[in-house]
Every structure is written in structure tokens, then in C-alpha cells.
Amino acid sequence: MLEKERSTDLFLKLNFKGASVYFGKLIYNIAVSLGISILSYFLLLVFIPPTIITSPILMLFIVLSGAVALASGITIVSAIVAVANAKSSLLPILSLPTILPVLLLGVAATEKTIIASDVQTFYSDILFMLSFSGAIISVSYVLFGFVWDD
Q1: Which terminus of the chain has fewer CB atoms gathered within 10 Å of its CB, N or C?
Q2: Residue 128 and residue 48: Cα distance in Å, rounded?
């Protein structure tokens, strides 16, 4: 968390609850992640011939749900790493178990949009990524108070 480095965490602790800070960080991370994903998606559509991607709308939903899942997973991991002393080596180690399922499923779902798989499998992939995001956000909401008060 940038607040620890800039020493503004005391100001935030005095004026805001931990949940407000967490959801502010989460909304910011999701917005940045969605912005980068949308830009990358449209650049992909510009450079890849439209005949390769069988369902561009479903691919967009897969990219967006993956971006939300990655942002929600990284938000709490970065808060935990900010409290620790060994920041450079701890983030990749802690974030791997939280983002690996989303990355693997996102790559597989994106591949399915290229090889024209069944539409029903896309919905289960998108539902999994959004459910994963909901679970991570719920657990992070509970755990952020302990990280924030430390």
C-alpha cells in the first residue's frame, strides 16, 4: 500500500474505517484493470482478423470478468505485502495461488473463443470467474481489518 510508504496511513486510519479504504482500493484496481483490458481487447480486434474470433462479445465478457477477478485477488495480496518487510519477493509468492486459477481458466476460455467451442461452456467460465471474485472480495473484506490495524 502506498500509504505505508508515504506515511499517510495514520491520516486514513483516523478518518476512515478499514472497509472504506479497502473498497476504495478495490474499486480503483478494478477500474484500472478494466480500462487496460478494454484497451487491449480493442487493440486485439484491430490487429487480429475478425474471422479468427468466433464470438467477440463472449470474448469481451471473458476478458472483463478475468480482469475483475485478477484485480480483486491482487488487492488484498498487495495490502498484505505492504505490511511485510520483504516486499519484492513476497508479492509473486503470495499472489500466485490467488491468481493462477483465474489465469488458467481465462487462457482456456479465450482459446475456446478462437476454436469455436460450445457457448454453454463460456457461461460456466464467466460464472466461475465472477464467483471467484465474489469469494475473494468477501474474504478480503473480513481480513482487511486485521491487515489495516497491524
Answers
A1: C
A2: 27
